[in-house]
Amino acid sequence: MITTDSSTGVRGGLSDSRPPPICGLEAMMPVAARIVSVREENFNTRTFRLQICDPELRSLYRFAPGQFNMLYVPGVGEAAISISSDAHDPDYLEHTIRVVGSVTRAITRLGQAGVVGIRGPFGRGWPMEALAGHDIVIVAGGIGLAPLRPVIYQILRERQRFGRVVLLYGCRTPADRLYAEELEQWSAGEQIDVLVTVDNATPGWVGPVGVVMKLLQRIKVNAARANVLICGPRMLNRVAASQFLQLHVPPEQVFLSLERNMHCGFGRCGHCQYGAKFVCKDGPVFSFAEISDIFAKEEI
Ligand SMILES: Cc1cc2nc3c(=O)[nH]c(=O)nc-3n(C[C@H](O)[C@H](O)[C@H](O)COP(=O)(O)OP(=O)(O)OC[C@H]3O[C@@H](n4cnc5c(N)ncnc54)[C@H](O)[C@@H]3O)c2cc1C
Ligand code: FES
Asked: pTM for this one?
């Protein structure tokens, strides 16, 4: 059975329509997807290219930048993983996965030709329509670049719809960079400004060294025109949001993708509760204006 219900998120007067999830039994039943290739990004992170096995379901599947799937390995469990590929080409889905626990390890063990279950796409992604006409500053740390990669693909395809676009990306060492070849291409293409910094330089690295937000010194931000998209570890999210707010970027124009433990993925179980919101359904992307009352609270 294919569910076709769609939900609509409202973000400060702006509505964003989402593709319906492609899965059975009210979104709880995973569908089979084959791992068609695996690319190593760094020592503990790989990008898995998946194809939904059933051609009919595959043709129905659509997602928006910033949404996620629940990936399922029978006998092991499920994990929420962002979709990191191009939403324009939903025939294949890419998921960039860092091994941290049982599910991510099991998917990595399956490798090419393995079959996983997927449910999704879930969540409210980046506000692509609202970004049109604005400058965009993308701030990513480590694996946080994964849910932002579909944003970059869409911007590059519709480049004339957006103002100046800057990517600020930080990771531990040069070898830890995700999508290293694409970063080079995006930088060489001169359609977006790409600034990458590392915590620890290794021989041959001639770029900046230090935390991501040090890169802010290298760019000019027009606070009224800028929309900021942030995804990284909790500390980066906090520091980045507060620095852009100090630059007078309005809180409605600062967006963060948040992580919480997930179970159902679509607002039924309460696992991902964040104050009065559910990260799986109301997020994972929130404007700072939506979460300013709880964002700084450690216990939430
Ligand atoms: C919306 C969303 C998008 C996400 N996108 C991505 C993505 O694109 N890529 C990605 O890699 N991850 C992503 N995640 C994170 C991913 O869902 C979690 O890391 C997930 O928990 C991994 O599942 P797991 O079973 O492999 O690890 P888990 O077993 O759930 O372990 C997760 C954490 O718990 C720790 N842990 C595990 N076992 C133990 C133990 N026995 N004792 C103490 N600590 C333990 C691990 O060190 C790890 O830090 C996303 C999460 C959300 C909510
Ligand atoms: S994961 Fe169940 S409500 Fe969010």
From this structure: 0.91
Amino acid at 287: S
Tell me the pLDDT of the chain averaged across its residues: 90
pLDDT at 189: 84
Answer left, alpha or beta for residue 209, where phi above 0 means left and psi between -120 and 50 means alpha. beta
Kindly give the distance from the C-alpha atom of residue 97 to the centroid of ligand 1, in angstroms, as a whole number.
10
C-alpha 261 to ligand 1 mean position (Å): 8
Which ligand sits closest to the CA of 281?
2
Residues with CB under 6 A from ligand 2: 262-265, 267-272, 278, 280
Distance 284 CA to ligand 2 centre (A): 11
CA 250/CA 267 separation, integer angstroms? 29
Ligand 1 centroid to Cα of residue 116, in Å, is 17
Give the ligand at the shortest distance from the Cα of 278.
Answer: 2
Atom of ligand 2 nearest to the CA of 272: 4
How does DSSP classify residue 53? S
Q: What are 21-28's contacts with CB under 8 Å, separation 24+? A: 21/119, 21/120, 21/121, 21/122, 21/266, 22/52, 22/57, 22/60, 22/61, 22/120, 22/121, 23/118, 23/119, 23/120, 25/1, 27/3, 27/119, 27/122, 27/264, 27/265, 27/266, 28/119, 28/264
Q: Is the per-residue pLDDT at 15 higher than 90?
A: no
Beta strand extents in the chain (DSSP E only): 8-11, 14-17, 31-42, 45-52, 68-73, 77-82, 93-98, 115-122, 135-141, 165-171, 193-198, 226-231, 254-257, 273-274, 277-278, 285-287
Which atom of ligand 1 is least distant from the CA of 283? 1
Q: Which of 35, 31, 179, 22 is nearest to 107 (CA)?
A: 35
Residue pLDDT, tens place only, 230-287: 999 999 999 999 999 999 999 999 999 999 999 999 999 999 999 999 999 999 999 9
